[in-house]
Write a structure and sequence with these properties.
Shape: globular
Radius of gyration: 13 Å
Strand order of the largest sheet: 4-3-2-1-7-6-5
Largest sheet: 7 strands, antiparallel
Structural class: alpha+beta
Strand content: 35-45%
Number of helices: 3
């Protein structure tokens, strides 16, 4: 599935709005390497005032919703993108989530860096 197809589908399901704040990321976990990255692949998207996290597949599609977080209740600990990737770390209701961002995720990271 092409990324633009995923964006269109997410828009129709109200998981991403016109800002198109969406990024593929890898959840930091116990397993490392290629196996850990494939098992922990996620899509992070923003629709209005909610951050959605879905399990992603290698073919760019998405499956099970892993979380929905109100932006006003997110405590952003780190939101940084760089040439070789970056990090997105937040806390929500006492639970900390850590995702590794790919390169070219500046738009997403900058949105949360200002919060």
């Amino acid at each position: 599935m092409k990324v633009q197809e995923v964006i269109t589908k997410m828009k129709s399901n109200k998981l991403i709005d016109d800002r198109e704040l969406m990024v593929y990321a890898t959840k930091k976990g116990i397993l490392g390497g290629a196996v850990g990255a494939a098992m922990n692949l996620a899509i992070l998207s923003v629709y209005n005032d909610t951050l959605y996290i879905h399990r992603a597949a290698i073919d760019n599609s998405y499956n099970e919703q892993l979380g929905a977080y109100e932006l006003s209740k997110l405590k952003i600990l780190k939101s940084k993108a760089g040439f070789f990737g970056g990090d997105f770390v937040f806390e929500y209701e006492g639970k900390k989530e850590h995702y590794t961002l790919p390169s070219k995720s500046e738009k997403f990271a900058e949105f949360f860096a200002g919060k």
